[in-house]
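Field log, afternoon session.

UNIT: design team B
ACTIVITY: writing a sequence onto a fixed backbone
BACKBONE:
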């Protein structure tokens, strides 16, 4: 140890070890490596593991080196140091690497609530409601009980063949006895698969449901809606002299002018509307909590402004844009739900004499199809309206539009021939 000395390199902030090699000149070794600190022996001991395979042990206080004790054992140099110092260094390292793991994470449980974690892991409130209802449907049919933590874990602990058999039986029940549509059955099976996937992530499930295949669904989707003049007739039915009429008119303007989904309308707050620049911030589908800014037409700006002034919400920026008009207790307003908007649209369309079954999403279809008609099938331009992530979806709308138009033309030719 007499050949060893040390100093502090202030410019580089490194502890430098100096030792004499059996060579004509001296050489500095920089210990640039992992740095471990352990509290023991009444003072701070620091262990630095260098990139050269050298370990230095020293005591530090206020940035100065005190009573430096250095044990250098390198695999590449042929010196044998004291067994005491080697054992001391090894003990310090072992003390640092043998600390218990997991003591600070008291929230961890061997019996996690899988459904609760699945719902918390899902951003969309609508998806959470659907998952909860579909999983409940599965357990009530299979066991006669609503799902709780122990029942879910009991299912997730089944063997592969038993689990697949249970899900296949539920799938047959949905198809043969309840006679649900293929898409509805697939949605329910998907909820069960999502629960199983979460169970596997949490380490409480050992099987997969790959053998439970989805039912084939007809790829064609009816995206037809109503004509613009028919929708104009619906708007004329609204009494704009009442507060409720102003609210309903603003909602129907958003559904048509901006092709909003009903959940996008329901989630609006007063502060999302900027009348000065004519924009609205919406929670788009699949965007989580990130809001998307859209431009509004003059008519929609006027309708929203008229409604906000009539409802006295001009200064209540965090309040729901559209609330229930029913009597309520207290000052908190109930946010309008999607089902209320569906009933509003259905009732007005029936009153206007529209025979087609109408819904907020059917109005969205109507808006997108009409936009394709008036833009000569410009997919990109219409995509900015619909906000579909995949432009192929717009192409499906256009294909359906062209198919109906061409079929109508050919049918007309055939009718004129006889």
């Amino acid at each position: 140890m007499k050949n060893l000395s040390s100093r502090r390199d202030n410019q580089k902030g490194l502890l430098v070890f100096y030792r004499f090699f059996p060579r004509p000149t001296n050489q500095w070794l920089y210990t640039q490596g992992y740095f471990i600190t352990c509290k023991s022996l009444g003072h701070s001991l620091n262990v630095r593991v260098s990139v050269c395979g050298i370990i230095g042990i020293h005591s530090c206080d206020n940035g100065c080196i005190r009573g430096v004790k250095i044990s250098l054992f390198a695999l590449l140099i042929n010196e044998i140091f004291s067994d005491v110092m080697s054992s001391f260094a090894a003990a310090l390292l072992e003390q640092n690497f043998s600390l218990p793991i997991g003591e600070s994470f008291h929230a961890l449980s061997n019996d996690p609530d899988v459904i609760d974690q699945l719902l918390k892991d899902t951003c969309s409130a609508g998806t959470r409601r659907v998952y909860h209802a579909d999983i409940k449907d599965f357990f009530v049919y299979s066991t006669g009980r609503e799902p709780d933590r122990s029942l879910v874990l009991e299912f997730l602990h089944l063997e592969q063949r038993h689990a697949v058999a249970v899900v296949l039986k539920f799938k047959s029940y949905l198809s043969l006895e309840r006679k649900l549509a293929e898409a509805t059955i697939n949605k329910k099976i998907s909820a069960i698969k999502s629960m199983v996937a979460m169970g596997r992530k949490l380490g409480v499930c050992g099987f997969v449901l790959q053998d439970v295949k989805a039912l084939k669904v007809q790829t064609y989707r009816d995206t037809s809606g109503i004509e613009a003049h028919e929708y104009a007739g619906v708007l004329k039915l609204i009494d704009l002299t009442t507060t409720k009429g102003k609210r309903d008119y603003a909602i129907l303007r958003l559904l048509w002018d901006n092709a909003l989904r009903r959940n996008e309308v329901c989630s609006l707050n007063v502060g999302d509307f900027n009348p000065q620049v004519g924009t609205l911030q919406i929670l788009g589908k699949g965007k989580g909590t990130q809001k998307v800014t859209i431009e509004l037409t003059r008519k929609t700006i006027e309708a929203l402004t008229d409604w906000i002034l009539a409802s006295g919400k001009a200064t209540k920026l965090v309040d729901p844009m559209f609330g229930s008009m029913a009597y309520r207790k207290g000052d908190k307003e109930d946010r309008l739900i999607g089902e209320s908007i569906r009933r509003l649209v259905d009732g007005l369309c029936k009153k206007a004499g529209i025979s087609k079954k109408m819904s907020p999403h059917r109005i969205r279809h109507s808006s997108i199809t009409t936009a394709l008609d008036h833009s000569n099938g410009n997919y990109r331009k219409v995509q900015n309206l619909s906000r579909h992530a995949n432009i192929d979806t717009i192409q499906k709308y256009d294909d359906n539009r062209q198919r109906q138009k061409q079929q109508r033309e050919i049918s007309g030719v055939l009718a004129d021939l006889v």
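LOG NOTE: Residues 259 and 364 are 5 Å apart (CA to CA).
NEXT ACTIVITY: expression trials, pending approval
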